[in-house]
Specification:
The chain contains twelve helices and ten strands. By secondary structure, the chain is an alpha+beta fold.
Length: 385
Amino acid sequence: MDAREQRKQAFMRRQQHSKQVSEGGGVSFFKGDLQNANFWKCEEGDHDLDIIPYIAGKNDPATAEGEWTYVLEVYIHRNVGGVEGQDFICLAKTYGKPCPICEHRQQLIKEGADEDLIKELKVSKYPRSVYNTVIYDSDKEEEKGVQIFATSHYLMEMHLNKLSESTARDVASGMPPFKFFADPEEGYSIRFTRSGTKMNTKFLAHQLVPRNYVIDQEILDQAHVLDELIHVPTYDEVYAAYWGEDFEKEQKTEKTALPRSKATSSRRAETKTGHDNVDYDPPKRGRAKSKPKATKPDSEPTRQDDSDQEMVCPHGGEYGVNAYELEQCETCEVWEACYEENSRLMADDPRVDEELLKEDPKEPPKKTSRGRGRPPKSSRGRGRS
């Protein structure tokens, strides 16, 4: 197998992995002493970029060391220990290793603890996606060379994965089942629009635009081994940040409660109660402490999707309208009901084109590409005909 075919096979494996993530599956998790690493801040407006592939290192959870890849994806615990911006990679969901936060969440579930606290500790359904990119929004951006772009899988990789799938007619005509958009020789540029900020952020109108040039070796050499830039914490490190106490490696004969950090105590105090009689101490690693079960209320609360209750988007959007447009949709507890309402509204709206209804409403309408425009400065005059 020649080098080009080997690279394509690696890209196919990585895109297939992204598809599995899409179907079910801050940047403080980076090391703090990075040199020559430029992070791109995606502002509102239209954007035009290339994704630059690289060779995976030893910390990539989805790609074997030494194989070609184009994206690093990791799951994150945010604001660990109640400290804003203190994010850690989830060891359990990313690497299949013990995670003290996930262990505590399982303990809370078994003990019937407050549901708000349990939800607070839940890892997002979708990971963070990190890319090497070259940005063509302006000459100034292009001159910066390779920049690191960290975003949500829900906002970017999910859309790219869908767009990369060839139609049945394309496959029948001899085209490959996937468009390898990150391939340096036969790839595609990415165009999309960012709308809104913070809680209202949306990435819209994603396009794969055929390139009329190849990615220079000079650019490929600038690509970072992304999994070498992240901080993969130890169990003890996450434990200490979460509980405010060092992990006790020596198991004691008597069960003694560990002091809780001020941040953790404050977070629990602010949590909506209903199980105030339950006091949680940090568990010993691999051994959940036995605690008295909290008394559950006599009557079950009304489900959020009951027909007699007015539904409101908890993230500032419009219920039933922004069902797949906000970044918070990926973790929202009422998303399924909101999505069903969205489908109903579309079906009842006579203005909706019948052909559009045949497509998956979770995906933005595809736009026809008419070409890449101009190639980057470093590749002008070297494009393929």
